[in-house]
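ok so i was messing around last nite and threw this chain in just to see what happens. nothing serious, just curious
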Amino acid sequence: MSKSRQQNFIKGAAILSVSTIIVKAVGLFFSMPLASILDEAAYGYFFVAYDVFAVFNAIATAGLPVAVSRMVSAAYAKGRKKQADRIFGVAILIFFILGLASALIMAVFSRPLAALMNYPGADLAILALSPTIFFCAIMSAIRGYFQGRSNMTPTALSQIIEAVTKLVLGIGLAYYVVTAFGESASSLSAAAAILGVSLSASLGTVYLLIYKRKQNKIDREDTEKGDETVMRRKEIAWALIKFAVPITIGSSFLYVLDLIDTSIIGGALQSIEGVTEAVASGYNGYWGAAKKLFDLPGAIVIALSTSLLPILTAAFVKKNQCGVNRMTSLSIRFTFLVTIPCAVGYVIFGRDITALFFPQDTAAGAGTLLTIAAAGVIFNGMLYTTNAIMQSLGHTVVPIINMSIGGVVKILMNYFLVRMPEININGAALSTAISLAITMILNLIAVYRLIPKAEKPWKMFGQILLASAVMGGLSYLINVGLAPLAGGNIAVIISIIAAMAIYIAAAVFFKAITYDEVRMMPKGEKIARILRLKPSGADEGDYE
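result:
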């Protein structure tokens, strides 16, 4: 691969972070009108369908993209370009079969699955979402290949294409159904919105196939002729499956736990006197809306993790222990820098932020849930990062065991908490935060056993928390002062913008942010000079 096309960790993380912010912003704009167009029951069915989808999508795509990325990265680290191409050829066939099978099973059994979830009205939504699995499988193969080459551009652009077309098609179809059949057609309107998701996934797939075809032409021109030996296809398939199966089984098990959890929440809510299926579905819609905002910081961390995996794998393959230590420390610090201020912001402005994106009724319920679950944002982000670190080093089982323990804790807590009338759906938010905390602690213990010389997390946490606390306190005072003058929503928007500036200043003052983190941003070196941050002396080669 030519130098001009090779993206390092810094650039890859920046590209995916920007695309993630765009995608999540578009996703919120998708949720805003959708919550207004659909009634509460239909909005709940929408999220139930996604819970079912997550299980089948995990079976088709959970482990293999990581395996493809890791194997392609290792092949390129050793200069074996033909090997990387053959890995992709084997992977795309496996993805095609798994994706098609999973989509068909989800479609055929959509009605029993909806009944199993205690939401029979979600059957059409589940059916409409089933084709998405096939398209996601194909996209995962191509994304995994390019991520292994540290080229994050196709992943970023395909995600943006999906998000924008989902917004247009999903809202358009939902509006048409509600207009034609009335708001009472809850099941059909939820299915229409989700059909837009499936169509958007197909467009994302088409883009990636075109991109891969163009890349093949470039590679044929750049590749030097030689006698490079490559593994047999059977050996590659076995290596992919051997690495991916633990992740796939574990992820599928985790999503099954989430599925059980959703079913338990639905049943527990309906066991409360006066709570019908429609009311329970409405509560589930509140939690689904809250999770959209809850997952936003984690999505940015996923961008980091995706970029981290091939770079850390290459350092590991080359036996560059200094690079492994530095990359581990940098990724953990970056995770804290993103998630801690977000958690503080959700505690202070949880209800106000949800009011910016959702109707009043939805925002009131979702805001409370977001505030309760806020601390879980930190634990969730660290979970993604530590999983990527362990997978980069070839350890796939430990993360799954740890997440399974957290998942079981979450189910047990929900079973007892949600059925209490005075707690009800709030129990889902509380159990989420606690279960993620348990999993994060277990993951950090495992990571520092593997990489004991990496910078310890508690050395980073205090400074970043202090900067975030200053940000939270000052932005709260700004909001209180502006609200009577400018109105609630405008005051919140101004306060959030001010909070970003305050956080950067406080992070620099308390030395919570270093040159290495700032360098990750677009125009990072220029920004570092403005903030008067100096290089730590680390060799940039250690990161590549």
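not much to say yet. The two ends are 14 Å apart (CA to CA).
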